[in-house]
Amino acid sequence: MEVPTNHNRQVMLQRVKTYWLVGVLKESLHGAELIDLAMTYRTNAVASHALADWQQPDNLLPDELFDTPLPIGTSITTVYDEAEGTLLVMGEPGAGKTTVLLQLVSDLLLRAEIDGRHPIPVVFSLASWSNNVPLGDWMVNELANRYEVPRRLGQTWLKNGELLPLLDGLDEVEQEHRVACAQAINQFRQRYLTMPTVVTCRIKDYEALATRLNLAQAIVLQPLTLEQIDEYLVSMGPRLAGLRAALQTDSTLRELAESPLMLSMMTLAYYRMPEQVALSLGDRKMGRTLLFDVYVERMVRYRGGESIYEPTQTVPWLGWLAQKMTQFNQTIFFLEYLQPNWLPRDQQRQFADGLRYRLAGLFLLIGLAVGGVGLLLSDWRALAAGAAAGVITGGLLAFLRLLLVWARVNWFRIDTVELLNWRWPQALLGGGLGAVGGALVGGLVWLVGRSGGVSPGWVLLLALVGFISQLVAHGLERDEMKMRTTPGQGVARSGQNGRIVGILTGVGTAVLLALGLLLANWLKMPVPWTAALPFGLGASLYLGVSAGLAYGGLAAMQHKQLHRILAQHQLSPADYVHFLDYAAERNLLRKVGGGYMFVHLLLLDYFRETASNT
To answer: Which of 174, 212, 427, 510 has the fewest CB atoms within 10 Å around its CB?
Structure first.
């Protein structure tokens, strides 16, 4: 295996391990041991073994009658191997599907680290799948956006069968698109017959589909038994005696505890609160909503560490986030996903107008400042010209959304510029065309003003302005790949790109115009320095600021403006990353690479419903 290829593979293996095993699986266990979940085969759930309608006894027998139990302690990896790598994992909400999937990831990662020919296991969250997108193309995009894998490398891995996709959450796809997603998975399976593929889905959502997945085997995760629950609580120590007693007398609570997620919630809710409080809840009736109430309250109030945010702040903020993630079909939240359309409609207008007029005012100030320099060097006409230039450039941006001649601004959409590429052929071609256009404008200025003493040197200066503006416009290319390994990294990188491009463009313009002025004097086409200095200063500032905004700076400003409005209307804290890290430390969210996800979809649903009821 070539060294660069092996390096990319090792980086990807480590990234999957960091994101999912350390960031999700380890955090979800909270130091406890995994419980051996009972599993049953449901062979007729997949297309390769599905029974025809006439084969179903009276067409009425439920799928459970065809289930075949597996011995307790059977590992998911054993089931995966017997299914030859194509497996459907089903279960009720909170049954442990994702945890089981990540147990499989752990074993597959170990195999891939030992054997360089073993495919790379990669977890893909199906919630972000879009209708009518081929699954392979979607996977390549996910590799770029979630794992920082260049698209060309992702396509190579996919083509060569070097990926092992683990598709989590078919039920998380929008309901009207689930059948199309199942069909996309089957089409992918037909194209990549030898590629192992694992899918997870809630039982009821899968049964509601008219399409069966073309996989070798299907299993159903079974509820925990009372003996398993009791053994688990005993292993956690005497502090949970109150919970054990409650389970003996409360059938509702006992039924909830059959779900590994609910049992984990109960354990944390009791274990993190003061002991006297935990014991007092021993005979308290507890439904699912009340359980989440207790869990959230205990995580916020009683968990160790400094209580920076009050529950009256934490719950509404997470509720609003849960609502928006559901509305926009997201299971992992990145700060870069915040968009103006997350705001109420009247606040969207406030967002756009505030930024529009602020930037228009900035260009007006640039024009006035340059005009002021001209006033000091010559007369009032320079001030008037500077003010006019500021009004024109600011007006073009505010009302026609034009930033230079190549960039059109969308006030209601934030597009971060996280990576940039430079293309010399396009840059030189664009610069040449820009120079021609600038020279034509300069020639027109000279023809109109030569009777008043306008120097032909302006043809050269305006040609240089056209050259550098179009050199930047055509040479810089936004890379679709996103770099988001830490929270907010995409926004920070976009702002950094904007500053670098703006400074280089502004300084480059100033240097080039200075050289052009020297050349004009050498060619006996002198331009008075009293006119050239304000012009050079204005052109450098305008091109530098405009290029910086177009290539990342505007997106960074938009994000800052959006956060300001969210904080003003109490929809989020002023420091969002700090709050999200706090919520993750309190086991309400989990950090996944540069994003955050709720510890479970049921908790997301709880926060969403809580926000809807307030």
So the answer is: 174
Q: Dump pLDDT digits (tens) for 39-71.
A: 999 988 998 665 444 344 444 445 555 689 999
pLDDT score recorded for residue 120: 96
* 92 and 223 Cβ atoms separated by less than 8 Å: yes
Query: Residue type at 607?
Result: F
Tens of pLDDT, residue by residue over 419-467, are 899 999 999 999 999 999 999 999 999 999 888 888 999 999 999 999 9
- Would you say how long the chain is, in residues? 614
Q: Which residue, chain included where needed, has tokens 């039924």?
A: 255
HSE of 111, CA atoms in CB hemisphere, 13 A: 14
pLDDT at 403 over 90: no
Domain boundaries, the chain: 3-221, 227-334+576-612
Which residues in 62-95 are b (16+ Cβ under 10 Å) and which e?
ebeebbeebeeebebeebbeebebbbbbbbbbbb
Q: Report which of residues 64 and 340 the model is more confident about.
A: 340
Using DSSP, state whether 50 is helix, strand or coil: coil
Angle (nearest 5°) at CA 502 between 497 and 506: 155
Report the C-alpha gap between 191 and 185 in whole angstroms. Answer: 10
Spatial CB neighbours of 298, under 8 Å, sequence gap ≥ 6: 268, 269, 270, 272, 273
pLDDT digits (tens, 9 = 90+) for 135-158: 999 999 999 888 888 889 999 999
For residues 192-209, give the mean pLDDT.
94
3-221: CATH topology is: Rossmann fold (3.40.50)
Q: What is the pLDDT of residue 482?
A: 66
SS3 content of the chain, % helix, strand, coil (to 5): 65, 10, 25
Burial class (CB in 10 A: 0-12, 13-18, 19+), 391: middle
Share of the chain above pLDDT 90, in %: 59
Q: What tokens does 144 get?
A: 């770029």
CA–CA separation, 556 vs 553, rounded Å? 5
> Kindly report the CA angle at 450 between 447 and 456, in degrees rounded to 5?
80
Query: Kind of pairing, strands 163-168 and 120-125?
Result: parallel
Token pair of 420 as six digits = 């940039």
If DSSP codes are grouped into helix, strand and coil, which group holds residue 74? coil
Which range, of 15-24, 51-60, 308-317, 577-586, averages the lowest pLDDT? 51-60
CB 153 within 8 A of CB 109: no
- Identify the residue with better confidence: 482 or 413: 413
Q: Which two tokens stand for residue 467?
A: 């050259």
Alpha carbon separation from 540 to 128, 349, 535, 543 (Å, rounded): 43, 32, 8, 5
Beta strands in 172-280 (DSSP E): 197-202, 217-221
Strand partners for 80? none
Q: How far apart are CA 207 and CA 147, in angstroms?
A: 32
Give me the residues paired with residue 478 across strands.
420
pLDDT confidence of residue 256: 76
Is residue 16 within 8 Å of residue 111, measured between CB atoms?
no
pLDDT grade, residue 271 (50/70/90)? low
Classify the C-alpha dihedral 35-40-43-45 as positive or negative: negative
- What burial class does residue 129 get, using C-beta atoms within 10 Å of its C-beta: 0-12 exposed, 13-18 middle, 19+ buried? buried
Reduce the DSSP state of residue 291 to 3 states and report it. Answer: helix
Closest by Cα among 418, 362, 419 to 394: 362
Token representation of residue 414: 């934030």
Rounded to whole angstroms, how far apart are CA atoms 365 and 380? 17
